[in-house]
C-alpha cells in the first residue's frame, strides 16, 4: 500500500491540514453529530421512555430493578424472585456517581476534578460529553442488568479528559477512563462517541468479573465484551432496535478527512474504513482469518471482529432491542463465574450458549440465534 | 545503525512504525549515546492496560517491548526524538502476510509462526484448547 507521508507539522499541531487530504474533504456532514447529540440527551429526560421500553419487551426487568436494594445487592440472579414484586417506594433510586477530571493536556492522572455528580454542565465539551456518556453507560448497566456502576456497588465512575497533547487514544487504566482530544486530523476527541465511553467503562466491568487476560484470544474477547456494551449503550440511549442500529464502534471519532465511518463494525468487521492514510479496516470476520501477531497484545483489537460478528448476527436474527436478549445473555456469561481469564473463543461461545439455555430454555429462539451466530463465524463452542 | 519504534494497540488498534537511520542524522554520536544508555535488559513485563499503546523499540542487537507507562526517562527521550525526525508508516506487516489461521476443531492445522526468535509470545491457542 502506498504510504502518503503525514506532514510533521500537522501531526504535531492540529489545524494544519495536509494538501492531499484537503482534496477530499467531504461536503457531506454525515450524520455523526445527529446520532451523538441524540444519544446525549439527558439521563433524566430519557428515563420514563426507557422504563416503558424495557418493561414492554421484558416483563422481568422492571420489578427486578426495584428489588435491588441494600439487601439484594448487585446479584442479578434475584430477577426471578423479583418478578411481579411490588415496588418499594422506600428504596431510594440508585444514581450514578460521576467524577470528571481534566488533565489539561498533560499525561498525568487523575488531573483536576472539574465536574462531580449533579453539577451543571461546565461548557467544556469533552467534560460534558464524558459526564453525559457515563450517565448513559451507567443507565444501561443499572437499569437493564441491575449492576450499579463498575463494581456493582455504586462506586464512582471516574474519567479524565484532555489527556496528553493531541493524544490519539482513549483507555482504561484500571481505575478510570482516560480520553485524549485526538490530533484533529485523523481523530476528533474521543468523548464524541457514546460507544467509546461504553467500551472503556466495560473494560472496568470485565476486570471486576471474568477478568479475561488482555492477550491473544482472551484479550480479543475482552475487547469484544467492551465493544458489545459500547454498542448496546448507544442503542439503549437512542432506543434503536437491532435492525436500526449501526453496529459501529466509535462513529464520529474520525475527522471528516478520513474515509471511514467508525473504528470498527461489529456486524461487518473489516468494512469500517478504507482510507489512503489509515489503510483498510483489518478486522477479520471469520475464525479462518484469525490474525496471529505479536503487536497489539496479540491482535486483541483485530480478532475481536470475530466474536463481534457472532454477537451482532445473533442480535439481528432475534430482532428487537439487543440489550434485552443477546446483551443479557452476554452479561450473564460475563458475570456468571464460569469463565476463566485465559479462556478463548470456543469456551466463551459455550458460556454464552449455556447462559442462553439457562435464561430462555434449551429450545428457544435465543439459543438458536446464538448458536447460529457462532457457527457463522466458524467458532465451535466447547 | 537503525532505530525502529513500533507503536501498536490503542482503542483503534492502529499500528505506527517510525524508523531512523542514525548515520543519516546530523548528530549520529548523540543517537549512539542515547541508544547505549537505554536500560535494554531492564524492561520487566508490565500488566497490559486495556486500549493503551504498546511500544516495541529495536536497535540491533537490542529489542525491548514496553507498555506505554514504561516509556519514561531515556525511553521517552528516544521515542520523542524518533517521532521528531521520522514520519510514521502505517505498514501492517502482520496482516495478510503472517496470518496463521487456526481451524476450529483442528488445532494442528495451525501453521508454524514466523516470529522473530527474540519474541517470547506464544501463539494463541486454537479454540479447541
Ligand atoms: Zn478496549
What descriptive keywords fit this protein?
heterodimer, A: 382 residues, Neutral Protease, domain 2, 5-stranded mixed sheet, 9 strands, globular, B: alpha+beta, 2 helices, 18% helix, binds zinc ion
Structure, explained:
- The complex is a heterodimer of chains A (382) and B (129).
- Chain A is of the alpha/beta class and 382 residues long.
- Chain A has 14 helices and nine strands.
- Chain A has a single domain, classed as Neutral Protease Domain 2 (Neutral Protease, domain 2, Orthogonal Bundle).
- In chain A, strands 2-1-3-5-4 form a five-stranded mixed β-sheet, with helices on one face. Chain A has a two-stranded antiparallel ribbon with strand order 6-7.
- In chain A, helix 12 (326-335) packs across helix 13 (345-360).
- The model of chain A is unreliable at 1-85 (pLDDT under 50).
- Chain B has one domain.
- In chain B, a hairpin with a 6-residue loop joins strand 1 and strand 2.
- Chain B has a four-stranded antiparallel β-sheet, with helices on one face.
- Chain B is α+β, with helices and mostly antiparallel strands.
- Bound molecules: zinc ion.
- Zinc ion sits between chains A (199, 203, 223, 226) and B (11, 50-51).
Placed side by side, the strands forming the largest sheet of chain A appear as 2-1-3-5-4
Number of domains as seen in the coordinates of chain A: 1
Mean pLDDT of chain A: 82
DSSP, total strands of chain B: 4
- Series of H and E elements of chain B: EEHEEH
For this entry, what is the oligomeric state of its chains?
Answer: heterodimer
Largest interface: A-B, 60 and 46 residues
Regions of chain A with pLDDT < 50 over 5+ consecutive residues?
Answer: 1-85
Number of helices of chain B: 2
Question: Which structural class best describes the helix and strand composition of chain A?
Answer: alpha/beta
Rounded to an integer in angstroms, the radius of gyration calculated over CA atoms of chain B is: 17 Å
Question: What gap, in angstroms, lies between the N and C termini of chain A?
Answer: 39 Å
Strand order of the largest sheet of chain B: 2-1-3-4
Shape of chain A: globular
Amino acid at each position: 500500500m502506498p504510504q502518503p507521508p503525514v506532514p510533521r507539522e500537522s501531526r504535531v499541531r492540529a489545524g494544519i491540514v495536509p494538501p492531499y487530504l484537503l482534496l477530499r474533504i467531504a461536503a457531506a456532514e454525515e450524520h455523526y453529530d445527529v446520532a451523538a447529540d441524540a444519544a446525549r440527551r439527558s439521563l433524566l429526560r430519557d428515563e420514563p421512555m426507557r422504563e416503558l421500553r424495557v418493561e414492554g419487551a421484558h416483563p422481568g426487568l422492571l420489578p427486578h430493578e426495584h428489588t435491588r436494594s441494600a439487601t439484594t445487592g448487585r446479584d442479578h440472579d434475584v430477577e426471578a424472585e423479583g418478578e411481579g414484586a411490588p415496588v418499594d417506594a422506600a428504596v431510594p433510586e440508585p444514581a450514578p456517581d460521576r467524577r470528571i477530571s481534566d488533565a489539561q493536556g498533560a499525561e498525568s492522572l487523575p488531573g483536576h476534578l472539574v465536574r462531580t455528580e449533579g453539577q451543571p454542565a461546565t461548557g467544556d465539551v469533552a467534560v460534558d460529553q464524558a459526564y453525559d456518556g457515563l450517565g448513559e453507560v451507567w443507565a444501561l448497566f443499572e437499569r437493564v442488568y441491575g449492576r450499579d456502576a463498575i463494581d456493582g456497588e455504586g462506586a464512582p465512575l471516574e474519567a479524565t479528559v484532555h489527556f496528553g497533547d493531541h493524544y490519539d487514544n482513549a483507555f482504561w487504566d484500571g481505575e478510570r477512563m482516560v480520553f485524549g482530544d485526538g490530533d484533529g486530523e485523523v481523530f476528533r476527541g474521543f468523548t464524541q462517541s457514546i460507544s467509546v465511553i461504553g467500551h472503556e467503562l466495560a473494560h472496568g466491568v470485565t476486570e471486576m468479573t471474568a477478568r479475561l487476560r488482555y492477550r491473544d484470544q482472551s484479550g480479543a474477547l475482552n475487547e469484544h465484551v467492551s465493544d458489545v456494551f459500547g454498542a448496546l449503550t448507544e442503542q439503549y440511549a437512542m432506543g434503536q432496535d437491532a435492525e436500526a442500529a449501526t453496529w459501529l464502534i466509535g462513529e464520529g471519532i474520525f475527522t471528516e478527512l478520513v474515509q471511514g465511518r467508525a473504528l470498527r463494525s461489529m456486524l461487518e468487521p473489516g468494512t469500517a474504513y478504507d482510507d489512503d492514510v489509515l489503510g483498510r479496516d483489518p478486522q477479520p470476520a471469520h475464525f479462518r482469518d484469525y490474525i496471529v501477531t505479536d503487536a497489539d497484545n496479540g491482535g486483541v483489537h483485530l480478532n475481536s471482529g470475530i466474536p463481534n460478528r457472532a454477537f451482532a448476527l445473533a442480535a439481528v436474527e432475534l430482532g428487537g432491542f439487543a440489550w434485552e436478549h443477546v446483551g443479557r445473555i452476554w452479561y450473564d456469561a460475563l458475570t456468571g463465574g464460569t469463565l476463566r481469564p485465559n479462556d478463548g473463543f470456543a469456551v466463551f461461545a459455550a458460556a454464552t450458549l449455556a447462559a442462553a439455555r439457562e435464561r430462555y430454555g434449551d429450545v428457544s429462539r435465543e439459543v438458536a440465534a446464538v448458536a447460529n451466530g457462532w457457527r457463522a463465524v466458524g467458532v465451535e463452542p466447547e | 545503525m537503525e532505530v525502529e519504534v513500533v507503536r501498536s494497540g490503542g482503542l483503534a488498534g492502529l499500528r505506527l512504525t517510525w524508523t531512523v537511520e542514525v548515520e543519516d542524522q546530523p548528530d549520529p554520536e548523540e543517537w549512539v549515546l542515547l541508544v547505549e544508555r537505554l536500560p535494554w535488559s531492564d524492561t520487566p513485563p508490565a500488566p497490559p492496560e486495556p486500549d493503551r499503546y504498546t511500544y516495541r523499540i529495536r536497535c540491533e542487537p537490542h529489542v525491548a517491548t514496553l507498555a506505554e507507562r514504561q516509556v519514561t526517562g531515556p525511553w521517552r527521550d528516544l521515542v520523542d526524538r524518533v517521532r521528531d525526525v521520522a514520519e510514521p508508516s502505517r505498514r501492517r506487516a502482520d496482516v495478510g502476510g503472517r496470518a496463521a489461521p487456526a481451524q476450529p476443531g483442528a488445532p494442528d492445522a495451525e501453521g508454524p509462526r514466523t516470529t522473530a526468535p527474540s519474541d517470547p509470545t506464544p501463539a494463541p491457542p486454537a479454540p479447541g484448547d
